[in-house]
Amino acid sequence: MIVCSYFFGLAVTATPIILMYRSRSDELKPLLTAPFEMERWSYERGLRGYVTSRLLVVALLTYVGNVLFGPAYFFVSIWRPCLPFLTTYLFTSHCPGGWSTGMGRITIGIVGRVFSALAEFHYWTILCAIYVSIGWIASFYPGSASIQKMRVIQRELNKRNEEKIKGYREIQLLSIFANNFWKFLLIQILLGAWLVAAIVSLYTVIKLADQIPLEQAIMFALTLLESATMIMLQFKLLAEPCIASKQLFQHRKRLPGGGSQWIRCYIRSCSPYQLKMADGRFFDKTTALIVWQFVVDRVVNCLLM
């Protein structure tokens, strides 16, 4: 019963993500296809060197998550067949050859180990890593492709080819799709859970690191590192399209005579690429610092209690 409930729990946690993508496929598809066409359009017009180091880090983390998570869980599940292996191993000295259930140990053979390992592999590779990666790609890729197109438009404006500014309408449309995706309830829940994990891990590292086993301290330290990376790196990537669009609008003022009357009226009808959060604010260059300050303030409040 305990074994079945554990694997049932894995399915329950992954099912909402699958259902969300299935039900919103019409909204999600443009976020995965339109940026590619926009990127190819920019490349055909000679844009180079647009891949930043921060974008490479995010892509590398996504790739590592897809490629390594599944095999790692598979082999460790055979080596340490706990229930689940990681959580149980952190709170018990060892669980060789069986599942630690809290009510004794269930000894299993190689067939049981392979079954549990395949279940872990399927969950972390198919249901978790791939679907979560799709979510992050849908969040970052539209903004990255939009920045590329804005650079091409800016270069064309320098050549006094003002009609190319019309391409900004595609960027505005893409930002609408991105905001619709960002409003998904599950995305907001995941962000909230990530902030809670950052607060708890930071509090644990500061207050309880010398009072808990070393394995648990390492787990919380890694969670804190991952949360800080998301806030200080990924949130900044989400803010870059907003910054780039405002710079494009400001660039018009540096054109000879400030540009024609037509382009001035056209730009006034455009809005910056703003990815909005649940509270109505949008990601800009100060968002990462504000969110990190929020995490630190919550930890300070907990320490003073």
Beta content comes to under 5%
The radius of gyration computed from the alpha-carbon positions, rounded to a whole number of angstroms, is 24 Å
Distance between the first and last residues' Cα? 40 Å
Kindly name the structural category.
mainly alpha
Molecular shape: globular
Uncertain segments are: 85-93, 96-103
User: How much helical structure, as a percent, in the residues?
Assistant: over 70%
Quaternary state reads single chain
Series of H and E elements: HHHHEEHHHHHH
Number of strands: 2
- What strand line-up does the widest sheet have? 1-2
Alpha plus pi helix count: 10
Number of domains: 1
Short description:
The protein has 305 residues and is an all-alpha fold.
Structure, described:
With 305 residues, the protein is mostly helical. The chain has one domain. The protein contains 10 helices and 2 strands; from the N terminus they run ααααββαααααα. The chain has a two-stranded antiparallel ribbon. A hairpin with a 4-residue loop joins strand 1 (98-100) and strand 2 (105-107). 24% of the residues are buried. Residues 85-93 and 96-103 have low confidence and may be disordered.
Keywords:
305 residues; mainly alpha; 10 helices; 2 strands
List the helices and strands and how they pair.
Blueprint: H1 2-23, H2 25-44, H3 53-79, H4 85-91, E1 98-100, E2 105-107, H5 110-158, H6 168-182, H7 185-208, H8 214-252, H9 261-268, H10 287-304
Antiparallel strand pairs: 1-2
Helix pairs in contact: 1-5, 2-5, 2-6, 3-5, 5-6, 5-8, 7-8, 7-10, 8-10
